[in-house]
Design a protein that fits this description.
The complex is a heterodimer of chains A (about 140) and B (about 450).
Chain A: E1 7-14, H1 23-35, H2 39-59, E2 62-70, E3 73-81, H3 88-91, H4 101-105, H5 113-120, E4 123-129, E5 133-141
Antiparallel strand pairs in A: 1-2, 2-3, 3-5, 4-5
Helix pairs in contact in A: 1-2, 2-5
Chain B: E1 9-11, H1 21-25, E2 31-34, E3 37-40, H2 50-54, E4 60-62, E5 75-80, H3 94-102, E6 108-109, H4 112-128, E7 136-137, H5 142-151, H6 165-181, E8 188-194, H7 197-204, E9 216-219, H8 220-232, H9 248-251, H10 258-263, E10 268-272, H11 274-285, E11 294-298, H12 314-327, H13 336-344, H14 366-382, H15 396-405, H16 414-432
Parallel strand pairs in B: 5-6, 5-8, 7-11, 8-9, 10-11
Antiparallel strand pairs in B: 1-4, 2-3
Helix pairs in contact in B: 3-8, 4-6, 4-13, 14-15
Classes of the chains: A alpha+beta (about 140), B alpha/beta (about 450).
């Protein structure tokens, strides 16, 4: 993560709280729009943040979503305390999901989260440890 | 006359009490209370009419035309919105409503409902073409088009670039009269009977066209009394069944869902009420509604029947209009083949680009905007977060934004002000205890502190 950031936004995300789900990424989107970044950049950052936020809500116990805006780039970091991912390669496949049936009934867990995040960002890194948690770091250049 | 920043929603300063109802309900945060009166921020207002609906003092008005404007034209045509047909309890027969309308001083009636059929066919063709952005968004509601310009500039490309039914109705009426009666364009006056202020604005200051084909607008509430009298005076023998031509599909456009019903294609979504529209547009912006082909979006709950300038209650008018459209023919009254030929000749397309309005940006310069955003966040932390509106801004966040933009100050917040007064009072108390250096009783020093013994 770039240390010379100009703006930092940080949000605590609660696992399994679908009432508040999406609130953090909505706020991120609104602020990026107000800053006047190119609409395609805003969309990609907002989608990446939304998918990261939803992943924490669906899969983890809790997590923190941090967005920093630096000259020329936006960094999105999602760190959670959760079960971790057993097979990252599989998790990156479109349509693959370990979400529960309950979650799928709500219309989530379509297996598009991680692939979407990767598609929307210019740099994508994921680190995970079983039983500990997952850390996803994304960069979007503007 | 075209005015760039024309707004049909205006304030009656006499009636405005400076309460905060309108500022809190405005979908684009376009109103502030200043000096005890509401003030509309012109570049943000989309003329949706939410403030007209909510104002307890009826201090928000829609500027429409005076009926005397009819005298400026040799041949007068009235184009009523389909939603008008649902406004009368005793008169389910639209033929009678249209005859009553004509009697008010018009030479001819041309139904917008009929033009709505043309537009349905044109939109269907547009959506069937490849490479047009999905989902398409209807251009029929001018408040939604303006909302997109102000809050969702990225979605302008999704707006189906076909003229709204009122413009097509006026265009068709003019052509018909020129051909049949031989009048010249400037001799013909076309007048719209409008359910809402947004349509008035779209006539006076068009988006997607240089000029409107319409010369003026009267609201339903403005003419209601007169119209009712005229309808009552219509005899059955006056009616020859030639005024009402549109099918149930065209008439159905007056309520939410009617446009999609007439379109009858693909995977469509219908949304009404400006706040619901915003929610749906947020989804489109995030790319989550790609499976939808077309969105019919209307700023008013219930669609045009729920317009701020209507008389009948929305739910009642909506049900009545639905029933009426079911009794009418279920096939288009217009010739589809002709419409498609016209479509190929660009008859239906907007002639100007819809431009984005970047009024939500904090600054044109990104670095400066980021600085302002930081300042905004810091300011927001000092505000109480009660969103009371006493400062005249819709909520604490909006006040922080106004401070950063330089149109408000932190002391506008009554709680911040009270805190400052408290600090000041405490300081005064502290100062009052002090004595000149030469004075004192030995036990206390001049700062009022007890001397050590």
């Amino acid at each position: 993560m770039n240390k010379n950031f100009l703006l930092k936004m940080s949000f605590d995300i609660e696992g399994n709280n679908f009432n508040a789900a999406g609130a953090a990424s909505s706020e991120i989107k609104r602020k990026l729009k107000q800053i006047g970044l190119n609409s395609d950049v805003v969309r990609r950052a907002a989608v990446s943040a939304y998918e990261a936020e939803m992943n924490i809500v669906i899969h983890a116990y809790k997590g923190v979503l941090t967005v920093t805006v630096s000259p020329g780039e936006i960094n999105i970091l999602a760190e959670d305390e959760g079960p971790g991912i057993a097979d990252i390669e599989l998790a990156m496949k479109e349509g693959y999901s370990t979400a529960s049936d309950d979650v799928r009934e709500m219309g989530f867990g379509a297996g598009m989260g991680l692939p979407n995040m990767k598609k929307c960002s210019d740099k994508f890194e994921i680190k995970t440890e079983l039983g500990v948690g997952t850390k996803v770091s994304m960069t979007i250049y503007y | 006359m075209i005015e760039r920043n024309y707004h049909s929603v205006v304030l009656d300063r006499e009636k405005c009490k400076g309460c905060t109802n309108c500022i809190k309900n405005c979908p684009t945060e376009a109103i502030r209370v200043r000096d005890g009166k509401a003030k509309i921020l012109e570049d943000r207002c989309i003329d949706c009419g939410e403030c007209i609906r909510i104002c307890p003092q009826h201090a928000k008005l829609a500027k429409t035309d005076e009926l005397s404007i009819l005298n400026n034209f040799r041949y007068r045509v009235v184009i009523p919105a389909p939603s008008l047909y649902g406004q009368f309890k005793e008169y389910m027969n639209p033929e009678k409503i249209l005859m009553g309308l004509k009697k008010m001083g018009f030479d001819e009636v041309y139904e917008v409902a009929l033009a709505a059929e043309n537009v349905s066919i044109a939109v269907r063709r547009y959506l069937s073409e490849k490479n047009n952005p999905k989902p398409g968004i209807s251009s029929a509601c001018p408040a939604v088009v303006r909302l997109i310009q102000v809050r969702f500039p990225d979605l302008i490309k999704n707006i189906v670039p076909i003229k709204a039914p009122i413009e097509i109705a006026a265009k068709k009426a003019r052509e018909k009269i020129k051909k049949e009666k031989g009048f010249k364009d400037d001799e013909i006056g076309v007048f719209f009977i409008t359910p809402c202020p947004a349509k008035v604005t779209s006539i006076k200051s068009p988006v997607g066209a240089k000029t409107s084909f319409i010369n003026g607008a009267f609201s339903v509430s403005q003419i209601y009394g007169d119209l009712l009298k005229n309808i009552k005076s219509v005899k059955e023998s006056d009616l020859d069944g030639t005024l009402q031509k549109a099918s149930g599909l065209g008439v159905g456009w007056g309520r939410s869902g009617g446009e999609n019903k007439a379109l009858a294609m693909g995977n469509t979504l219908s949304v009404d009420g400006i706040h619901n529209v915003i929610e749906v547009l947020e989804e489109v912006e995030m790319g989550r509604l790609k499976d939808i082909d077309f969105i019919e979006a209307q700023a008013c709950i219930g669609g045009c029947v729920g317009g701020a300038l209507m008389v009948e209650k929305q739910v009642i008018a909506r049900t009545r209009l639905r029933k009426l459209s079911e009794t009418l023919a279920q096939n288009f009254a217009v010739d589809e083949y002709v419409v498609l030929k016209e479509y190929d000749n660009n008859y239906y397309f907007m002639t100007e680009k819809i431009e984005p309005k970047h009024v939500m940006k904090l600054d044109e310069d990104i670095a400066k905007a980021i600085e302002k955003m930081e300042l905004l966040e810091k300011t927001l932390e000092r505000l109480p977060g009660l969103d009371c509106g006493s400062c005249g801004s819709p909520n604490c966040r909006a006040l922080a934004e106004d401070i950063v933009r330089g149109i408000a100050s932190e002391n506008d917040c009554v709680f911040v002000l009270r805190e400052k007064v408290k600090e000041l009072a405490e300081e005064m108390l502290e100062l009052s205890k002090r004595l000149p250096p030469a004075m004192g009783d030995g036990d206390f020093n001049r700062k009022g502190e007890k001397n050590e013994t």
